[in-house]
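User: Hi! I'm working on a homework problem where we have to compare a predicted structure to a textbook description. Could you give me the structure for the chain below?
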Amino acid sequence: MTSEEKKIRAAVRLLEKHGYTVTPPAEPVVIDVTEINRRKMEPRRQAFIESMRAFVGKYSNEMLNEFYAYWTEPNKTFTKMRFEMQKTWDLALRLNTWYRNNQRRNNGRKQITDNDRAEKLAGILLG
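Assistant: Happy to help. Predicted structure tokens:
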């Protein structure tokens, strides 16, 4: 036992002798700032999803999911998403650009989704 621990024990005994109740200190509270920031970000992420709902019929679900995954990527501290760090933001214009870039990458070929494949296969099997 160190001299400091002896002093602390002596002080505790003296306090208890005079009617004080001495309890050990509480465990330190650890605050996970990243988790707090993630929770704060969630309503903004949901608002982004809601704003994208207007474009569900215009663009494929696959494209919208890719767009969402890209633009809602958080920064390292989870305080902002990628789209929130842009100087300017217009969802309709960004989606249009995303769509146009996808078309260029595919050389104008139509992307076939799993639903399209299933329908085509059903058509072949059912004759």
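For your comparison, note the following. The CA atoms of residues 27 and 118 lie 58 Å apart. The chain has one domain: 33-126. Good luck with the assignment!
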